[in-house]
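Exercise 7. Given the components listed, write out the predicted structure of the assembled complex. Treat all entries as one system.
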Amino acid sequence: MKHKLLPLSETMHYILLALREPLHGYAIMQKIEKMSNGTVSLAAGTLYGAIENLNKHGWIEPVSGETGRRKVYKITDKGITILNDERQRLRHIISLYEMSEIDEEV
Amino acid sequence: MKKFKLFFNIVEEEQWLNEQLQKGYRCTNISGLGIYTFEKANKASIIRLDYQDYLSANRFEEYKTIYEDFGWTHIRGSRFGSIQYWQKTADSQNEIFSDRQSYVHYYKRLMNYSLSLAISLLMISYMIYKDSSLYETKGLWDMEGSLFWKAFLFETPFVIIKLLPLIMVILFGFSYLHAYRQYSLLKDK
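Answer.
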C-alpha cells in the first residue's frame, strides 16, 4: 500500500525541498515564502506538525549543535529518495499536459 | 477584569475568548478553575487553542519555540496532555494551521481528548453510583404529602451534585461528536 504521506501535499513538498539545506523551524517558513513567491505561508501549528511527522518517518532528521534552543533539521537519504520518486511522478503528469494537444489531433 | 466561565468544548471556548478580545481586551491569565483575566489593549489580539498529548520536555520546548518565533505568546498549557492557549497581535496570519491536513489532525486530537475525558468520568460515575441509590433518605418513596415533598426537595440538590460526573460525561460526549463532525467533513473532501 502507498505510504500515507504520498503523494506529497504542498506543505510536505515545500518543507522537504527547503530542507535540502539545514534550517530551523521559523527559517523553513521564511525560505518557503521566498521559494513560492509569497503564495505559501505556513502557520506555526502546521509547520510543527509537519516537522514532527516527517521526522517520525525518518524523511528529515535533527542535525546536532548550532542555534541554541532552536532545533535544526535536514533532509535524510530516505527523504531524498521520496523527492526523486515524486519528481518522476510529476514529470510524467507534466508530460501528459504537454501531450494533450497532440492526442487531440490523433 | 476577571470573568468566570466553564467550557466543555475547546472550539466554543476559543470563540468566546475571541469575542472578549474583540471588545478591546487581551487575555493575561487563565486559571484552571475557569477564571479568565483580561486587560484593556490598544492593539487587536487573537487567541487560538490547540490540544497536544503528552510531550517530552524537549518536544514541548520545541513546540513552544516554533509558535513563539511566529509571534504567539503562550498563556497556559502544560506538557502533560493539555489545551494550549496561544495569543498574538492580529495581523495577516491569525491562524495556527495553514492546510487542511493540519485541521484534520487537530480535530482528531480533540476527539481523543473529549473521548478520554468522557470515559474517565464514566468510570468515576460507575464507582459512585454502583453501591448507592440516587435518593438515600430511608423510606422516601413511602412518605406521603408534604413530608414527602420536603424530604424530596431537601435531597434533590445533593442528588444533582452526585450526578455531576454523569452530566459532564454527556457534555464531553457532545464535544466529541462536534469534533467528529468537523473531522469527517474535512476528511471526505
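Discussion: Chain B touches chain A through 24 residues (CB under 8 Å). Chain B has two domains: 2-89, 100-188.
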